[in-house]
Amino acid sequence: NLESGFSFLAHPEKRTGEDAFFIEGNALGVFDGVAGTAVDGTDPRVYSQFLARATAERVREVGPENVVRALIDAQAVNEEIGASTACVVGLDDKARMFGINLGDSGVRVVRGDKVDWRTRELSHQFNLPYQLGDKSPDTVQMGQNIQRKVKEGDWLVVATDGLFDNVFDRDIVQVISDMSSQGPSAVAKQLGALAVANSQEPDFRSPFSIAAEKAGQSAPGGKLDDVTVIVARVVEDANWASKSFFSSL
Length: 249
Known about the structure:
alpha+beta, 5-stranded antiparallel β-sheet
């Protein structure tokens, strides 16, 4: 089972952000609404929030191991205007993790003192991630498929690019190592705080700035953004109880 916690922080210069997330027992998901869809007056939060809520509701019906099917079904009935990346994972009763990542959110599996496995970013070009949307040709099935065996003691970090653009994998591992005794909620809040702090450092050589350089562009410092982090620890606990959390507008 998954013992989970989260950090849900809006862009430092905005009161509300475009990210959304859900925790539904052993299924987790993060969604990054595309701010560019706001140019015509559309609220970019609505699309990602709908996907998160509809996927979580479908997970309750089909089970966490079918979280990809839940996302596909949620997208099929999404009539909102806008766009969003999507990253979902679910754990079955044999500790097998299933999921999919479309865009530049992602998953890290931390085992011991290292990242044992990670997703890759899927972008059409620099800073233009794959995304679901009413005008997007991208589909759920175009995402990176996730099938991975995990074990007790593993940590899962499922987050939007607000984390990964501002915090290196080695620092994610360090925070987990330093704070593991305090549990997933404390780890998630610390990672979120670190991402926000780094995003506001103009001289920080961030993961985003390095990626920009590789793409022939200049984007020094951290990247101001919404930050959504779900941290989960794989546990074998007879007293484990399913929990539901959902981001609200």
